[in-house]
Design brief:
4-stranded mixed beta sheet, about 350 residues, 16 helices, 4 strands, mainly alpha, abc type-2 transporter like fold
Length: about 350
């Protein structure tokens, strides 16, 4: 009961600090919509390599889809499919997306059409286009049926390994997670302020055990970060009109756990508050640099060493899911990463409070 009471007390303390809570919701949302509008205005050229679309260009729904996808697309007729495949083999394009010849007929008959994507094993640069095609199909089928159709059962064979995240989900999860790690400096400062104001020393003078106090601090921090980050994701999905996925929320919670471990690690590593924000900003910068190949496929980064190093970045596991990886493996990897930070950052409360 002592742990529960201490945890609730810490949660109440966080809730009384809007400067800690509100940015966790609104700043990621602003970032998501700013980047979304920028990508839409640029037709996603920064985030996508050149892609070939093989289809019946004169088809009813094919022509609408071509207009929606924009200019970053090389069009081929159905009979020229092999030419597009040859370009892929020569690495002139990143992906070949093939719409079956009955694409429009299937949609008119309220049947999910078959869409196939061909790409090299080292390339994932067609993610946004694939998700946009999937959304177009879902939207068209909803229009053909009625407004109450369950879009979660609408599937299309777009990629060899089906992604657990759609394009807007990838952006939302990435932005929210990025701000989680950036915001960890604020929570570090909050924890250090407890030490500076002798709150921790007063807690030590009570009957509560050291472990109970430390656990309640960590657990309350994790719960607050996980809840408000998940709330930001839900709001982003509602505004985008996307389905709310429980595994995606779990992915956000796993990133919250890593962020909590990072806070504990930094608080143990640095005694001076001036180093805290510098360290968290540097961590975010390095993590993003390691994942530039996934974030910006147009850069065409194919270094094996770089790809291996990127696995230590939490953002890598978000893009791994987006490229078709198992979301639960990514969650497990993030939990291990958080445990490493927790273990490296573990400390005796008496030593932390007094030093």
């Amino acid at each position: 009961m002592n742990i529960i009471n201490l945890t609730l007390a810490n949660i109440k303390r966080y809730l009384k600090s809007p400067h800690l809570i509100l940015p966790m919701i609104f700043v990621p949302l602003v970032m998501i919509f700013f980047v979304s509008s920028s990508v839409n205005n640029s037709n996603g050229s920064l985030f996508e390599q050149q892609i070939a679309l093989v289809c019946n260009k004169d088809g009813k729904y094919e022509s609408k889809l071509i207009d929606e996808l924009g200019d970053n697309m090389t069009l081929f007729d159905i009979k020229d499919k092999e030419k597009a495949i040859d370009l892929l083999k020569n690495n002139d394009i990143s992906s070949v997306i093939v719409l079956n010849n009955n694409f429009s007929v299937d949609i008119d008959n309220s049947v999910s059409p078959k869409v196939t994507s061909f790409k090299t094993s080292n390339d994932g640069g067609s993610l946004l286009t694939e998700s946009n095609i999937n959304k177009f199909i879902s939207k068209s089928l909803k229009y053909k049926e009625d407004g109450n159709i369950n879009t979660s059962i609408i599937t299309s064979n777009i990629i060899k390994k089906e992604s657990s995240l759609l394009g807007s989900d990838v952006l939302s999860v990435f932005m929210i997670s990025y701000f989680l790690y950036l915001c960890s400096g604020v929570f570090c400062m909050d924890l250090l302020s407890l030490r500076k104001s002798n709150v921790l020393r007063r807690m030590l003078s009570t009957k509560n055990k050291d472990f109970h106090i430390i656990f309640s601090l960590c657990f309350s921090l994790f719960l607050v970060q996980a809840f408000f980050s998940s709330l930001a994701l839900i709001l982003a999905n509602i505004i985008h009109g996307d389905n709310i996925s429980i595994p995606t929320i779990l992915l956000i919670c796993a990133n919250s756990f890593v962020s909590t471990g990072l806070v504990i690690f930094i608080c143990r590593l640095f005694k001076k508050e001036s180093y805290v924000f510098l360290t968290t900003s540097f961590y975010c910068l390095i993590s993003i640099i390691l994942c530039l190949g996934d974030l910006l496929p147009s850069l065409n980064i194919n270094s094996q060493l770089f790809n291996k190093l990127s696995m230590i970045s939490p953002f890598y596991w978000i893009f791994e899911v987006a490229n078709g990886g198992n979301i639960y493996i990514s969650i497990f990897a993030l939990l291990l990463m958080g445990l490493v930070f927790m273990t490296c950052g573990s400390f005796k409360l008496k030593d932390f409070a007094r030093n």
